[in-house]
Amino acid sequence: MLHKTKGIVLGHVKYGESSLIIQIYTEKFGIQSYIENGVRKAKAKHKMAIFQPLTLLDLVVYKKSNSRINRMSEIKVNPPYRTIPYEIIKSSIGLFLAEFLNHILRGEEDENPMMFGFIHDSFTYFDQKEESYVNFHLQFLAQLSSYLGFKPSGAVEIMDELSQYHQIKLRPDEMLKLEELLDNDLTYDLKVTAEQRQQLLNVLIQFYQIHSHSFKEIKSLRVLHEVLS
């Protein structure tokens, strides 16, 4: 049966000589895998650029309850990004968040329109934002936790919880910035130093790790640190 749904590309892996298996977070079915044949050929119907991480899509898809990998009937980029693929800071943040979401959303195979809407609208906002976006990934992760059911009440709660598993500690100035981060939304102009940014990201990643059983090493993290240092 065919279904219309919006989707957000999280990643892909090569399959065979010319195909891809694409991980997409969909509005109707949560995280799904789709196979696209022949996409790596010169005369492919759909170009590889469509399946780059974080691309926003309108889809018509097949859905079989007993199949782990389905197919797409129609694919349209909507809306196309203006800045994320072309600006080094934005593209580095985008690759990190796509990999992060690919880990944290595993197992999320049910419809969750509130979380999908938040993720979709957040990346649209990020693409349109012309300045003060260097801390977007921190703000996004701080807000995403509420849609996953484990948003902390404040910085003290996070650090108390982490102390049971990790030896990480924050300086007083970093604790204040963590509280500021948790108290405000994506539109807030958060100002932190490069060192504070890295520490806050480490805290958020470890906080997600203790709430997720599918969390693995984030390979794009090193590149992100280099770009933002």
- What is the H/E order? EEEEEHHHHHHH
Mean pLDDT: 92
Overall domain count: 2
> How many helices in DSSP terms?
7
Structural class call reads alpha+beta
Helical amount: 25-40%
| Strand-residue proportion | 15-25%
* C-alpha-based Rg, rounded: 18 Å
Question: What's the topology here?
Answer:
Elements: E1 2-15, E2 19-26, E3 30-36, E4 56-62, E5 69-77, H1 88-104, H2 113-128, H3 136-148, H4 155-162, H5 172-183, H6 194-209, H7 221-228
Describe this structure in words.
The protein has seven helices and five strands, in the order E-E-E-E-E-H-H-H-H-H-H-H. Helix 2 runs antiparallel to helix 3 and helix 3 (136-148) runs parallel beside helix 6 (194-209). It has helices spanning 88-104, 113-128, 136-148, 155-162, 172-183, 194-209, 221-228, and strands at 2-15, 19-26, 30-36, 56-62, 69-77. It folds into two domains: 2-77, OB fold (Dihydrolipoamide Acetyltransferase, E2P), CATH 2.40.50; 88-228, no CATH class. Helices cover 39% and strands 20% of the residues. The relative contact order is 0.13. A five-stranded mixed β-barrel has the order 1-2-3-5-4. The protein has 229 residues and is α+β, with helices and mostly antiparallel strands.
